[in-house]
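To: structure desk
From: M.T.
Subject: fold request, one chain
Message: Could you run this one when you get a chance? Sequence is below, nothing fancy, just the single chain.
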Amino acid sequence: MSRAATISDPLNPETQEFVNNPYPLFDRLRTESPVWWSTKSKYWIVSRYAEARAILRDLDYEKGFSRFKQGPAIANLFPQVRAIKKAAKSWMLQMDPPDHTRIRSLVNKAFTPKIVHEMLLDIEAIANSLIDDVLAKGEMELMQDFAFPLPVMVISDILGVPRSDRDKFKHWSDGLVGALNPRREFIKVTRAGSAVEELNQYLIPLVEERRKNPKNDLISLLVQAEESGNKLTREEVLSNCILLLVAGHETTVNLIGNTVLNLLRYPEQLDLLKKQPELTESAIEEVLRFESPVQAVRRMPSDDLELAGTKLKKDDMIMIFLGSANRDPEQFPNADKFDITRKENKHLAFSEGIHYCLGASLARTEGQIALRQLFNRLPNLKLATDKVEFKMPFALRGPRNLPVKW
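Reply: Done. Structure tokens follow.
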């Protein structure tokens, strides 16, 4: 099959209209052209669950798929671009085996379920404190007052960085997230590089101090982590601290926002949850499926191959639309229905295979605690606006603002 699209090229992930409601286009793609070349964006789009899961797990494709791809050499002339490329090369998120296996095994030692379990009471206390701060006002901007500070305070505590610096983390995180646009606009890449440089300068003294005087935090554990005689280099420690600081809160911010938004948009589901609080876990899983915080991830074929009857060339850019795969009716009956009682909810929100999200357990835990505390403390919570817009870039999905009242 040639790269000519079987449908016209309507994809423009940078428009507010698309970002607010991409699902009608997802339906068309899955039906008419499940592996589709976007002539505008210059990448393949995989929209069905079966192909998405197969790529993520490297199923049935002997030569596999890679995560990292270097940009044009001329970009190296700019220090900010060099900074983001250097950091990204050490992110386990961007690595392939054997380096991915080595670093993930070491980081995993420092990011255990035990740490998450020990944080339960702390997460609950943070949630309650944030609610206390706004309770008397009768209203809040949920993203700014609750959904953002909760996970950033949690990951700050885990890493061992001051909670009081959370506004700095948001500034740096916004810079890094801006580079997730698939087209990788130069100005956004340079901003991301500047954020990496500033984060490095912030973290270097902390890493060196923990090397001399370890504490009970993740930075200390990363510095000390060792397996089979291998240790993380300082560059790997710094890069993965940046990754964990950003990834450790950014998607959870959106998960909390998406959860509150959908429960308020579907009051019958909220009523059901209030009557059956044991549905909290399945409610979070349904939000992860129905309004996936991560909408798209990149892959590149390691060699020429055929996918669903379409020929792809080595190093072609592939965008796996997780938000589309998670609404595939072939995998999820009544896929466009928000149903917190849904069974067998094997969504791809946390990816699959070797790149399955290391922080999935933490994100789920934070989402569940946030949900319980919000609606226990604020049982009359309701939307304070009829119009909710979603943030850009498209790859991460969450409300830009979410004013609520009670």
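Reply (cont.): The radius of gyration is 21 Å. Let me know if you need anything else for the meeting.
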